[in-house]
Amino acid sequence: MTSPAPNFYFPAPRVQKFCSQCGALIIQRIPPDDNRVRDVCDNCGAVHYQNPRNVVGVLPVWQDKILLCRRAIEPRYDKWTLPAGFMELGETTAQGAMRETQEEAGAQIELGPLYTVIDVPHAEQVHFFYLAKVLSDELYPGPESLEAAFFDIEDIPWADLSFRTVVTTLEHYLADAKTGVFPVHHYDIPLPDAR
Amino acid sequence: MTSPAPNFYFPAPRVQKFCSQCGALIIQRIPPDDNRVRDVCDNCGAVHYQNPRNVVGVLPVWQDKILLCRRAIEPRYDKWTLPAGFMELGETTAQGAMRETQEEAGAQIELGPLYTVIDVPHAEQVHFFYLAKVLSDELYPGPESLEAAFFDIEDIPWADLSFRTVVTTLEHYLADAKTGVFPVHHYDIPLPDAR
């Protein structure tokens, strides 16, 4: 307990070696009444399911400008992104989107409607982006952002955006802005090599 | 390896005692560069994040009748439900919804658009229901269903439905059927005691 703290890390996604309930070695097999291989524990009987994660964020608009953050973390370090991050336990997608906006941009926003719902199966994720109105041009980017800034539409750094869900959400917004109607868009992002 | 198989179980949600990477005891603390308590391992440095799960299903319609399944599993054993279940790794919400329909009802369907997206924060879940057209009245319910059956609108067993997301999805459908327009509905289900 007095040894120096280790370097913290996020375990290689989806790899489990020991049972989180009893500490015994895990094996991979199909449990009873199931139809796919799971991480199971033959010592205590625990079945360790794993499921996709949700990423929640906003498309924040301030007087016809778009708020973007430049990432201070991997993946996509130094790329520009819409404020977004993993949904946490106990919150709604809307609450998570507002929290991420606060953490990454420190922006005051008024949350609008859900705008894009995007399946990203190769990343084992679903992404949600809300429209949002920025209420002040004061920004206080947090440690996950190198900076936060407003961009005119014609100045969006398309070649330096972080993720395809960010690119496509912005593309939908620019298209819908011509009509002023912003319905929910739901679509999949295919595997990168399948595009 | 030759001992009798234990009774398999799904560990009490969200409780972890041992590190899945090295088997050491887990402690709860705020890791560096984070802002909330996580399950962390001071032996190997693993941070074990936990996130909400997605439930994916369909609202299957056959000649003005609704397909429901009577649950053969807890929770809500014996209650009627729309076919739905936990989204699995590597699939889209649409693929998961089709898989669950096959597993629980054995129904041939043509998947329609995403219809309801429902935040259920107290259950740490987001539910997705798609509209679907049933292509044949032949049903082959699987082991998670006691039976599967078609219901006329006036015969829907409202008092014996499984979950509030099922109730509200059906309510939206009946209201929208009057206009023939079925937009995406996004809303939250509040805590039961807050209703």
Automatic annotation (TrEMBL), chains A, B:
Where are the membrane-spanning stretches? none
> Which keywords, in A-to-Z order, does the entry hold?
Hydrolase, Magnesium
Tell me if Magnesium is a UniProt keyword of this record: yes
> So which domain of life are we looking at?
Bacteria
Cite the PROSITE patterns for this sequence.
NUDIX (PS51462), NUDIX_BOX (PS00893)
Cofactors: Mg(2+)
Q: Does the keyword Magnesium apply?
A: yes
Residues of the Nudix hydrolase domain: 51-173
State the InterPro entries in the record. Nudix_hydrolase, NUDIX_hydrolase-like_dom_sf, NUDIX_hydrolase_CS, NUDIX_hydrolase_dom, Nudix_N
SUPFAM superfamilies per the record?
Answer: Nudix
GO terms, molecular function: hydrolase activity
What family is this protein classified in?
A: Belongs to the Nudix hydrolase family.
Q: Which protein are we looking at?
A: ADP-ribose pyrophosphatase YjhB, NUDIX family
From which source organism is this entry?
Pollutimonas bauzanensis
